[in-house]
Amino acid sequence: xxxxxxxxxxxxxxVFGRVGDIVGRKYTFLVTILIMGLSTFIxxxxxxxxxxxxxxxxxxxxxxxxxxxxxxxxxxxxxTYVAEHAPMGKRGYYTxxxxxxxxxxxxLSLLVILFVTAYVNNNFAGSACAGxxxxxxxxxxxxxxxxxxxxxVFTTAFQNWGWRIPFLVSVVLxxxxxxxxxxxxxxxxxxxxxxxxxxxxxxxxxxxxxWSNAKIVILALVGGVMGQGVVWYTGQFYALFFMQxxxxxxxxxxxxxxxxxLLLGTGFFVVFGALSDKIGRKPIILAxxxxxxxxxxxxxxxxxxxxxxxxxxAIETVKVEVVADKALCGDLFNPVGTRxxxxxxxxxxxxxxxxxxxxxxxxxxAGSGVKVVVxxxxxxxxxxxxxxxxxxxxxxxxYPKVGDAQIVKMQHPFDIFRAQPAAVIGLLFxxxxxxTMVYGPIAAMLVELFPTRIRxxxxxxxxxxxxxxxxxxxxxxxxxxVASTGDIYAGLWYPIxxxxxxxxxxxxxxxxxxxxxxxK
Length: 520
Description:
The chain has 520 residues and is mainly alpha-helical. The protein has two domains: 83-166 and 175-307 and 415-509, Growth Hormone, Chain: A, CATH 1.20.1250.20; 313-397, 3-Layer(aba) Sandwich (Glutaredoxin). The protein is built from 24 helices and four strands. It has helices at residues 2-7, 9-22, 25-45, 49-52, 55-85, 91-124, 132-138, 147-153, 157-162, 164-182, 188-195, 203-209, 211-246, 251-265, 268-279, 281-307, 309-317, 344-354, 388-397, 419-439, 442-449, 455-471, 474-485, 493-509; strands at 320-325, 360-364, 370-374, 377-379. A four-stranded mixed beta sheet has the order 2-1-3-4, covered by helices on one side. The longest helix has 36 residues, at 211-246. The radius of gyration is 25 Å and the shape is globular. The two termini are 41 Å apart. Residues 126-155 have low confidence and may be disordered.
């Protein structure tokens, strides 16, 4: 469901990009915010599978597709609209404020989740759901209002029904957004072109069928947005995934660590956006890609040593091996998280990866089955979802348990003044700086690469392929690489390779755009 929204983004760019180049910037992203906002609100109302069966996940994925389609048109409209209003020499500065919104959105969402989770679980644990609002939300689920079950149910009240609150409250933001956008004027650059009868009648054909423009679209993707997308998603989303799923940092602490790094780093979007007006978009974006590619390994290893030193020591000292008939071992590529592994070799490796255990794979004789060897000792293995014997063996050898005392933990937001959280936040802050370098100037660069008549269409597609596909699928794809190799850092090769390609292609082929006249 999560991946569906990313996959469909480029199609939204094509659909709404065409509308934006024909009808106008203002009305197109008025439509996109309505689709996005209503889809989000309806998620909060969606009954679960116990109530409407398979229709629940089908509708959920349908809503995610609508969100992705809307975002495909939303970004191009916003970037184009702001850039076409900005004075010459300040487009990087003006559009950098758009770039802050993605990070601010993540930051605010983390705060909302932390607040709602704490409030709902603290106020409804051990008691029946009470109050008009609570009763209305919980109405489809009789068990939630049964006092006999309340103590059990409301220890996870957020998971049961509290998660709906942010979706429902989002309708207020939708109303504010629509009100603001209704009051905006059309882009003066677009309006002048339309008044002169010079607007495109077939923007898709002009943008992608004409090689002179299509090659710029490809260069924008490979030499700019592809690297920007993977650096951005590594620095914010994969870092969060890495801490929670691999380093076993509890969700509250991981969210706080990321939130602090975002709070400290967000202002640098504007810094690098403004700097790009002076020295150019290209050197800042490509430098961010290159520095990130060169430093991801040492930074993530330092995050491990500070956030979970027990795991770092276990990786260095404990030898775990999966021995299996080669015919029983397939690939573990699972970019959208939908595959179910059944072969014993694959289930063993997938299970060890989920436990953050570093392992190697050796191939035994044909028909030999599968065994897990921990420091030279065979451990009985069964192809099941949980393997207590394997888990006990690796923990006895030195791998930490969930909740290990050495794992970084924050009790409240101001625990940052302790050495361990401060060190992790410092490292995450560096990753955010890379994000601001590549993302701060990108909107201005994309706007400047294309002519006004097909700008909305042309810039939207490479942006959403780079961020929606290369970036959006990064966490799941990187974890698939981790599971396949048995190395918790191997997933970093994904962003490193694509960021490096962008640095090279962009350096040799991508033009500098900061002094381009975008009124043509």
